[in-house]
Structures are given as C-alpha cells and as structure tokens.
Design goal:
The protein is α/β, with parallel strands linked by helices. It contains 12 helices and 13 strands. The strands form 3 sheets. An 8-stranded parallel beta barrel has the order 4-5-6-9-10-11-12-13, surrounded by 6 helices. Strands 1-2-3 form a 3-stranded antiparallel sheet, with no helix packed on it. It has a two-stranded antiparallel ribbon with strand order 7-8. It comes from Microbispora corallina.
Length: 328
C-alpha cells in the first residue's frame, strides 16, 4: 500500500513483511526524552531550561509538527528518560487512535541519569529475560495498544542475546500477541548482529546506524531487506556531525547547491539505499524536523554519490569517536 500524505507529500508504505505503516522519515525521541544526550550543539538547541515540564513541552511540539507533516512512525525506548511517558501523554491529549501512528520502543537499557546533565552514568544495559519482562510491562502500561513494535536495544553478537532461549521465547510470545519484534544494532560489528538476527527467522525489523561516515552495515541491511525484514536507519546525521554545525566541506557544498541544509542531504543519502524503509529524524525542534523532512525532495544522483563517497570512515575509528562524544 502506498499513498501520499502530509504537506511534504510523504509516501506511506508498509515496513518489511509487517503491516506497520511508515513514511520515509520517522521521528526518534532519543534527543528530547531526557536532558542529556550525545548530540553536538545541544546547548544551542535546548538552552538551560531542561526540567521535566520544558522537555515535555518540547517533545509535544516536535510530535505536533511531525503529525502535521504526515510522519507515521515514532520511536522511543525505555532508556530515553521520560520519552515513553511524554509520548503517551501526547497521544492521549491529541486523541490519536491506536494504529494511526506506528509506535515502536526498545528494551534492554535503563535510564539512570536522575534527570541530571552531570550524571556519572546515564543508562545501564542488561539484555536479560527478566529485564525484557519488566520493561515490556512498563512500556505497555504507558503506551497500551499504541505499541506495535518492540525492539532489543543495541543487540550485539558478543552480548549473547541471540543465544538466550529465554529471551527469544519471550520475543516469540510478544509476536504471537500481535506485537512485531525487532532489534537495534551498534558498534563496528553491526553487520554480524544483523546477519545473526536474520538467521533466527524471528525478527520483523532491524534498526541500524548507517550514514555517509559509517556505511559498514549496508550489505547486511540489504540481506535483511531481501529476507523480508523492515530496515529502520538511525543516526543518519551521525549525532550532529553531518549537520550545519560540523558538516564536512563536500557535504556543505552539496547542500548549498541544492538550497537545503546538510542534514537533508545526509538523510537523502540514506533514503537512496534501496533497502532503507525509514530513516529516523532525531530533531530537537520543529525547525530541525522541517529541515530533515526536506530530504525527501533531494534528488540523489551519481554525482552526489561520487562526491560524498570519500567521507566514509573506518568503522572502528567512527565508533571510537562516537563513544568519545560528551553527554550534554
């Protein structure tokens, strides 16, 4: 099924073998559900007022802009501070019916930052079956029937989660109840995790990092797509490194020539991949979301592909640099 919707003429498609409806650009709430995150320029984006009420208002404003534009997919996680809570409140206040939006969330990390910018740790990872059961209950209590996709947060081969039959049985039970199951990936061995997920035959979707700097998961994501999984791309602007604040020269020049911002070109690169089902915007404001949505109107061509191919970094170096980003 495919139809135009929203002011940007966004197309609605189904995600992989699921019946979940998405648009090319979705909205991820990692940057606005908690006061600190690893995105460049957050002091400029958010200022000093980051109490719960201010962040809730900001989240609602971005959600309003996304809905008005026709965006159909919103992604949260248990570790995104109060993102699920903010989303649940907005869904109720705006009278959004279950199924009007594809709402996804993730389990495995727990937010421990205490709503502080200077917290020693902001999240703790645990991919155990006990955490799956507890966090799914917490997510369901907030999002209810709006939840349509539940994902392992940052699944890796070395974590052992693909060999944990108790976890896999728990995910199978969710799937039998009508909740699609997926995973997100992280690190220089994303491709290995994607291939393991495909081999299980269990997962409906995969959410991975792919951008002009970090392309190493591309072939594995193509294989996942061919196997019927829906592919969701996160970090398309590399935590701010592919925005106007830090865009490499070739990207900045290409954006100027096309009359858009660098982030729009960076997200257009994702949308040009035949395996990409949806790319998540991590916008912290309605204005940033509008800039991101311009990606759907950027005509990707061989010239852009050739000019920007040289931006690709060694995966290990890319992930080391990401790990060094400060929470701010």
């Amino acid at each position: 099924m495919e139809e135009p919707t929203g002011r940007h003429g966004l197309k609605v498609t189904t995600l992989g073998r699921t019946d979940l409806e998405v648009t090319p650009v979705g909205l991820g709430l990692a940057a606005i559900g908690r006061p600190a995150y690893i995105t460049l320029g957050r002091d400029d984006d958010l200022g000093e007022d980051r109490d719960v009420a201010a962040m809730r208002d900001r989240t609602w404003a971005v959600l309003d802009a996304a809905r008005e534009a026709g965006v159909r997919h919103v992604d949260a996680a248990r570790s995104y501070g109060r993102a699920e809570e903010f989303l649940a409140g907005w869904l109720a206040a705006r009278g959004v019916a279950p199924g009007e939006l594809t709402v996804s969330s993730k389990w495995g990390y727990e937010y421990v930052g205490g709503w502080r910018l200077d917290a020693e740790r902001h999240e703790v990872k645990d991919l155990s079956a006990e955490r799956l059961r507890r966090q799914f209950g917490e997510t369901r209590a907030l999002l209810g029937d709006h939840l349509s996709l539940y994902q392992i947060h940052s699944a890796t081969v070395e974590s052992g989660v693909f060999d944990d039959e108790e976890v896999l049985d728990g995910l199978r039970a969710l799937r039998a109840e009508g909740v699609a199951v997926g995973l997100s990936t992280t690190g220089p061995r994303q491709a290995d995790a994607v291939d393991r997920a495909v081999a299980t035959g269990l997962f409906d979707t995969v959410q991975s990092t792919w951008n002009l700097l970090e392309r190493s998961a591309g072939d594995a994501l193509a294989r996942a797509h061919a196997a019927g999984l829906g592919v969701i791309v996160k970090e398309g602007v590399a935590n701010g490194r592919l925005t106007a604040r830090a865009a490499p020269g070739p990207l900045a020049a290409a954006a100027r020539e096309r009359g858009v911002t660098p982030d729009a070109v960076a997200l257009a690169a994702v949308l040009a991949r035949p395996w990409a089902g949806v790319v998540l915007s991590g916008a912290a404001s309605a204005g940033q979301l509008r800039d991101n949505l311009a990606a759907v109107d950027v005509a990707w061509d061989d010239d852009l592909e050739e000019r920007l191919a040289g931006l690709t970094e060694d995966p290990g170096a890319y992930w080391d640099r990401r790990a060094a980003l400060a929470w701010s």
